[in-house]
Amino acid sequence: xxxxxxxxxxxxxxxxxxxxxxxxxxxxxxxxxxxxxxxxxxxxxxxxxxxxxxxxxxxxxxxxxxxxxxxxxxxxxxxxxxxxxxxxxxxxxxxxxxxxxxxxxxxxxxxxxxxxxxxxxxxxxxxxxxxxxxxxxxxxxxxxxxxxxxxxxxxxxxxxxxxxxxxxxxxxxxxxxxxxxxxxxxxxxxxxxxxxxxxxxxxxxxxxxxxxxxxxxxxxxxxxxxxxxxxxxxxxxxxxxxxxxxxxxxxxxxxxxxxxxxxxxxxxx
Length: 269
Ligand code: MF3
Ligand code: CO
Ligand code: CO
Description:
By secondary structure, the chain is α+β, with helices and mostly antiparallel strands. Helix content is 26%, strand content 23%. α1 (8-28) packs across α2 (38-53) and α3 (124-141) packs antiparallel against α4. The chain starts with 7 loop residues before the first helix and ends in an 18-residue tail after the last strand.
């Protein structure tokens, strides 16, 4: 495993890419309404990245080993879709929940972030799953600090999610990110505190838990990309790109429209 430590110049470029990724989510927010198709959301985001930001949508034609090139510019995962939902003709309707996952490349550096959106009025159960997942992500992020361990992050997320009767998807994890979309280390969203890689200032990785209302098991659809829960239970995900610092962490994927950190993780220092 080779985990890169970013230089100050590289960190500055990652700050820009991170903010741009988050600003795509700000931009698309008012369009996420009943009646819009996931393909329309993809097109709007694509054009905003390319024409307004001068950034490159990293997912487009992305082809990790064992996968056909990803055909779209963002991921749109609806209801029981866990991640990597491929935009298309599906029209969002009142009561749906959808994760929009954006990765931009700017000046050669990646910013990767996702949020959950509620379409019209959604069930109490869906709201609760979205909130539990949001707090789980931030609890994981709040463990990040030079000298802490990767296992601290996964442990905090798993403990919180399971204590709320939810389950943690095992097959997908956070990842190092920089000049490459996915690099070492793998950031598991479950595990044991005090285990795994020791964090060092200058590491940058994502924290992106996928939390299911039902069982943790998943399967892949015939399109070769979309992941769904086996039991068809709802799934939620949030994602930030995070820099390790001596005093803790800096979340790079923040912009004017980012929801604030939850109260349970408000920094006291
Ligand atoms: N953005 C996703 C992540 O958080 C990866 C999407 S890969 C794609 O790692 F090809 F599906 F876009
Ligand atoms: Co990611
Ligand atoms: Co992502």
